[in-house]
C-alpha cells in the first residue's frame, strides 16, 4: 500500500472503474467507505482497492452491481475464483495479476504465472499477458498509483521465472551459431532481452548473454574472444533519434559482418535509418522467422 493510502483517482486508474462510478457505488450501495484526512480528503486502503478490483471483474463478467454490493468478502472471493476457473481470458489474467501484485501475494503470484504459462505457453504468455502487465504497471508507476517496490517486485519475480524456463533448455544441443545479447550503457529494461534470449536458446543457438549496462568497448572485446554470428539489443529508455542513429552507426562498425537485430520502444518511436545488416524485430513470430524457430536449425 502507498503510505498515504490510495486516492479515488488511483482506484480509477488501477481498476478501470471511473471515479464518478465509484462515487455512485459508494453512495447508492455502500460498496466502499473511504477514510478521511484531517483536511477531509478521502483516501482508500488496500482492502478497498482489492474490493474494487474484484467487483470490477465480477461486473465485467455479467454480475449486477446491486447484487455484488451485497456480497461479503467470502462471496466475492468465491465468485472471482469461479470466473478464473471457467475462463482463460487474458484480460482476466491481467486483473488477477495486478491484484496479487498490489498485495505482494508472493506464492499466489508465482503459482498463477506458472498456471498461465502451462495453459497458453511461454511465448503467448510473455507477449499477450506479461508484457501487457509491465505496460500497465509502468503507467501506474508514472502517475504515482503504485510505488516503485511493487514494480520491482513483479519485474524480479518474472525474471526468476524466465530464468528457470531458460535453464530447462539443454545448452549442449545447439546448431553452432552464436548470438550475442546485450543492452547499452544507459539501458536497464532487461525483460524483453531475456525473453528473446530464451527464444534463441530454444531455437538451438549458442547464446552469449551480457545483460544490462554493457560498456560499448566491451562489445569489441567480446568479439575478439568468440565468433559471433548474430547480435540482438533493445532500446527502451528515452533517447533522441540522433543519439539512437549514432549508436547504431557505431554498432555497425563493430559488427560489420553480423546480422544485428534491434527492438524496443525507442525504435518504434523514431523509426531510425538502419545500416544494411540491421533488422527491426516487431514480435517473436518475426524473430522466429529470421532465426528458423525451434527445431528448424
What do you see in this structure?
The chain is an alpha/beta fold and 297 residues long. The mean pLDDT is 84. It is built from 14 helices and seven strands. The chain has helices at 8-15, 19-29, 46-60, 65-68, 73-86, 90-102, 106-120, 122-142, 148-167, 191-202, 216-225, 241-254, 265-270, 284-291; strands at residues 35-36, 42-43, 178-182, 206-211, 230-234, 259-263, 278-280. The protein folds into two domains: 46-166, no CATH class; 171-291, Rossmann fold. The chain is 58% helix and 9% strand. It has a five-stranded parallel sheet with strand order 4-3-5-6-7. A two-stranded antiparallel ribbon has the order 1-2. Strand 5 (230-234), helix 12 and strand 6 (259-263) form a beta-alpha-beta unit.
Structural class: alpha/beta
Distance N terminus to C terminus?
48 Å
Major sheet description: 5 strands, parallel
Spans of 5+ residues with little confidence (pLDDT < 50)? Answer: none
Radius of gyration: 23 Å
What proportion of the residues is helical, as a percent range? 55-70%
Number of helices: 14
Please tag this protein with its features:
alpha/beta, Rossmann fold, two-stranded antiparallel ribbon, 7 strands, 58% helix, elongated
Task: Describe the secondary-structure layout.
Blueprint: H1 8-15, H2 19-29, E1 35-36, E2 42-43, H3 46-60, H4 65-68, H5 73-86, H6 90-102, H7 106-120, H8 122-142, H9 148-167, E3 178-182, H10 191-202, E4 206-211, H11 216-225, E5 230-234, H12 241-254, E6 259-263, H13 265-270, E7 278-280, H14 284-291
Parallel strand pairs: 3-4, 3-5, 5-6, 6-7
Antiparallel strand pairs: 1-2
Helix pairs in contact: 3-5, 3-6, 6-7, 6-8, 7-8, 8-9, 9-10
Amino acid at each position: 500500500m502507498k503510505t498515504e493510502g490510495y486516492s479515488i483517482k488511483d482506484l480509477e486508474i488501477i481498476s478501470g472503474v471511473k471515479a464518478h462510478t465509484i462515487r455512485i457505488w459508494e453512495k447508492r450501495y455502500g460498496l466502499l467507505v473511504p477514510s478521511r484526512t484531517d483536511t477531509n480528503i478521502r483516501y482508500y486502503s488496500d482492502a478497498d482497492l482489492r474490493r474494487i478490483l474484484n467487483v470490477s471483474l465480477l461486473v465485467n463478467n455479467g454480475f449486477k452491481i446491486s447484487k455484488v454490493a451485497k456480497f461479503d468478502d467470502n462471496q466475492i472471493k468465491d465468485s472471482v475464483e469461479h470466473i478464473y476457473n471457467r475462463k482463460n481470458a487474458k484480460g482476466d489474467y491481467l486483473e488477477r495479476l495486478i491484484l496479487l501484485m498490489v498485495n505482494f501475494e508472493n506464492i499466489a503470484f508465482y503459482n498463477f504465472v506458472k498456471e498461465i504459462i502451462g495453459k497458453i505457453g511461454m511465448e503467448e504468455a510473455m507477449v499477450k499477458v506479461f508484457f501487457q502487465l509491465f505496460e500497465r504497471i509502468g503507467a501506474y508507476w508514472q502517475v504515482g498509483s503504485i510505488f516503485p517496490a511493487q514494480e520491482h517486485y513483479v519485474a524480479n519475480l518474472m525474471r526468476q521465472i524466465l530464468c528457470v524456463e531458460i535453464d530447462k533448455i539443454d545448452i549442449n544441443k545447439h546448431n553452432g551459431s552464436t548470438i550475442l545479447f546485450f543492452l547499452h550503457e544507459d539501458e536497464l529494461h532487461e525483460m524483453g532481452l531475456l525473453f528473446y534470449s530464451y527464444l534463441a536458446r530454444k531455437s538451438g543457438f549458442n547464446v552469449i548473454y551480457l545483460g544490462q549496462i554493457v560498456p560499448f568497448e566491451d562489445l569489441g572485446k567480446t568479439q575478439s574472444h568468440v565468433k559471433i554470428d548474430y547480435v540482438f539489443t533493445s532500446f527502451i529508455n528515452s533517447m533522441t533519434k540522433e543519439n539512437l542513429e549514432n549508436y547504431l552507426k557505431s554498432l555497425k562498425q563493430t559488427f560489420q559482418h553480423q546480422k544485428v537485430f534491434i527492438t524496443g520502444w525507442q525504435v518504434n518511436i523514431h523509426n531510425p535509418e538502419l545500416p544494411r545488416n540491421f533488422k527491426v524485430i516487431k514480435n517473436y513470430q518475426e524473430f522466429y522467422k529470421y532465426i528458423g524457430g525451434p527445431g528448424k536449425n
